[in-house]
Amino acid sequence: MINTLRGTRGMAVAPHSLASQSALAVLREGGNAIEAMIAAAATIAVVYPHMNSIGGDSFWLLHVPGEAPGANDACGAAAGLASRAWYAERGHLNTIPHRGGVAANTVAGTISGWGAAHQLSRKALGGRLPLTRLLEDAIHYARHGIPVTVSQSSLTAVKMGELQLQPGFAETFLVNGGPPAAGSRFVQTGLADTLERIAGAGTADFYRGELAQSMAEDLARVDSPVSARDLAAHRVQLVDPLTLQHSAGTVHNMTPPTQGVVSLLILGILDVLDIGVVPQGSADYVHLCVEATKQAFRVRDRYVTDPRYMKVNAQSLLVPEHVNELARQIDRRRAAPWGGKTQAGDTIWMGVIDGAGRAVSFIQSIYHEFGSGIVLPASGVNWQNRGCSFSLDAAALNALEPGRKPFHTLNPALARLSDGRTVVYGTMGGDGQPQTQCAIFTRAIAHGLPPQAAISAPRWLLGRTWGQTSESLKLESRFDAGVVRELSERGHDVEIIGAYDETVGHAGMIIRHADGVLEGGADPRSDGAVAAY
What we know:
19 strands
């Protein structure tokens, strides 16, 4: 049994312990939650390279006590050349390939998110730590090496066949032609040099400096449509997060193009169904959570895309009348048909709350494991493939258009509860993200489980996540046999997976109580840890 950890002066949680420790070191030096998260974001990009990269996107939810939460959308748009005609010229008429330069068709926004957060920290919170300090751990780990995790080693082995011929992949991620052994030292010299340059020259160099020009030239060589002009045009968007009025308080999540509205809808539906009186872990509990997920996914698949192309305002989908109507459509005894196609994805979520109660919920991604698979030779940047989620059908909800933002599975969560608690929580895992958020939030808030118990308890997944193609209802093998049997009898297509299977995500949660006490949990399915003092 892993106990929930507690602290009073600051806490960080990440799916890799070194990232948590980077954040904690900054907090101990007097840094605030934003500065701590920048340090964690840089470190996690180095120590969990199969899950995220500085060549990807990120989203931030930020809260200062007494103020309304804010959010940073650091998601890159499709390149100016990325049109259906451009793909047709290359023989791609129906779908965008998942790998290679043609899959690297959107700007990588995450570094701009670091920069915007750093500016906000200085202007609004009196932050004083320079980027040279905040990226210090990441630079060291990239230059001198990290111990390879089992997750990185095993995933490299699984994906090596489809990735080893992509430009730069073998030179960067393979050792003597094979996956690096778990526990061996893994060095990323090119990435170290790039992080060092960003630390010294500033994050703008990634978009409008010598680094941007170098990356644009390397992208062109692998037939990516992303140009120097696209990089220069990119800007972070500061937005107001979505809000759900819940019986426990106010829950926030990210705006489109993310599926944050899905996570909030699931919680809203379950609140209407009074999930708190349903025994946690029972067949009734799992059934209602899964059925609420189906309702929310159908709303997403009808409406959610780049907000400039949406026909409804995402906040309007969270009004009580709409949430109540979705709840009424759920049969408590029978599973609704499920023919939906869920999204795969890969990412990391991390949370920080400092001693003053300032909270950050953060998520960073390259979409599929190792993104597009290409690694730019001059900079060592592994570029994302988020834009392969675009459709080449002009009539599709997520149709490819130059300058359009792709649909994102990413969605960091934050809650301000009526009893004075502040909660940051989230997970990786494509369409598993809203489902795991549902599990840990309802268990911790509706049922009162400590964060670690809420995270460690057996979880489920409807559909697929990274590395999966099956659309079944996957249940970890620790569920009681009677629960599995009853779910099958209700019409769920049940599949049993591992006892602690990372298919269901790498979750984390921090709760700050009204008296300032912090408690948090990290996922035993990951290499993560809670760090506090």
